Amino acid sequence: EQMEYSWAVARSYSNLGILAYVIGHWPKAIDYIQRSLVLCQEVGDVAMVALTHNNLGHPYRVQGEFDLAEKHFLESLHISELFRISDMVVNARSGLAQVYLCQNRLVEAEDHLVLALSLAQSIGAKEKLAELLRIQAELSLAKILYDEALEEAEMASKMASAAKAGGTKMIDTSAPVFSTASFTVLKTGLPRCTCPPFPGVTPPTTLVP
Prior knowledge:
Layout: H1 2-22, H2 26-43, H3 46-62, H4 66-82, H5 86-102, H6 106-122, H7 126-142, H8 146-165, E1 171-172, E2 184-185, E3 190-191, E4 206-207
Helix pairs in contact: 1-2, 2-3, 3-4, 3-5, 4-5, 5-6, 5-7, 6-7, 7-8
């Protein structure tokens, strides 16, 4: 009974963290999600621990605290690979790619992005593929490959539209997961490290693979 209560509180903290992140209150988001993480670890919910580490990585990233963002994405990746949580492996590698892209660590960003794309394709995660292609477009911009960036951005847009038209598969989980797509501003020719736009934000109690 106590475990169920702790799990419910952890979920509530996580949802509050998501909402704080969406409206740009990143320190508050970090505080709520850290509280959730402590409770998740106490109840031993492995999947939720991996998810919460992933969700902590994003507000740290947009605040420019890249070491902490990297730490949490790596922890999420480690747990997710150990317990074979494929969708979370994709999310963690996507987060790491964005952190490295913001730091101009392009080789490392590309390594994680390639692995994330391959796994997303293998599990049929169309919406995640669209997000990854948008990040790939940013990477191409950083490498001054403008034609490739434009092509990837167009592919991402088409894939996102197709996934939306086909309906979104909703899976009950213990907590939400951040959308990890970042903005690509093709007209400037420059990648931007910004807060993800959250295209098609899903309800707080669902996970879109």
